[in-house]
Design goal:
The protein has helices spanning about 5-30, 60-85, 90-115, 180-195, 195-200, 205-210, 215-220, and strands at about 35-40, 45-50, 145-150, 155, 170, 175. The chain is of the alpha+beta class. The strands form two sheets. Strands 1-2-3-6 form a four-stranded antiparallel beta sheet. The chain has a two-stranded antiparallel ribbon with strand order 4-5. Strand 1 (about 35-40) and strand 2 (about 45-50) form a beta hairpin.
Length: about 220
């Protein structure tokens, strides 16, 4: 039996959330802040925390960021519910929206609950889940856990280069998590293959036109990516 697109989106969101949280909880309870595990020269597990958005960026107050994420995820879920059964919208587009939603929701969970359910000891101690003395921050003020670090290559700029001559350059510097990766993949694929949907509003007129297509055209439209 063919999997409905609404169920597919739900499975993606739940699956990404579970994997993201399992990895974060393991990192939080097994590594101390700043600890690094070298998997390869180009791939390391490096435990850090941040107050900001994806890849450690900062934007506004902590409470504002958390509330903004909650509103954004709520709107994305509502949007997916609206478009999930519309034959003229490709399945790949819905998958991209589900990945972005899951990634945003994963970081929301950290921001809302981690301050309450974890303590934040000084290194080299690792955090405890549900500590007897309580968490390190009130509800909505938790920090986002990051751990994926890919220092792919590095070099020193030649001395003759203006502005950057002699300086050390490392690619890729940001440290991120699985939720960030889901957001990035979803946005990248969406822009690359489904950007036409971003400029075309989804409304009841489009939907009614799709239902009025001849049977042969409808079957073609249903052959989604």
């Amino acid at each position: 039996m063919k999997l409905s697109r609404g169920l597919l989106a739900t499975m993606i969101i739940v699956g990404v959330l579970l994997i993201d949280q399992i990895v974060k909880i393991w990192i939080k309870t097994h590594l101390y802040l700043g600890e690094e595990i070298v998997i390869a020269d180009w791939f390391r597990i490096y435990f850090i925390e941040n107050n900001g958005m994806a890849f450690g960026m900062e934007l506004g107050s902590k409470l504002f960021l958390t509330l903004f994420r909650i509103v954004a995820v709520s709107l994305l879920i509502y949007y997916i519910i609206r478009i999930r059964n519309r034959a003229y919208i490709k399945t790949g587009y819905i998958v991209c929206c589900a990945l972005i939603t899951a990634g945003a929701a994963g970081n929301i969970f950290d921001s809302v609950f981690y301050g309450v359910i974890f303590n934040n000891p000084y290194p080299p101690e690792v955090a405890t889940m549900f500590p007897a003395d309580g968490g390190y921050a009130p509800l909505f003020h938790g920090k986002v856990v990051d751990m994926l670090y890919f220092p792919l290559f590095s070099f020193y700029w030649p001395d003759w280069m203006p502005f950057v001559g002699g300086q050390y350059f490392l690619f890729f510097q940001p440290i991120f998590n699985i939720a960030d990766a889901a957001i990035t993949v979803g946005i990248f694929v969406l822009i690359l293959f489904y950007s036409r949907y971003l400029s075309a509003p989804v409304d009841s007129t489009d939907e009614s036109q799709a239902h009025q297509l001849p049977h042969s055209d409808t079957s073609t439209k249903n052959d989604n990516e």
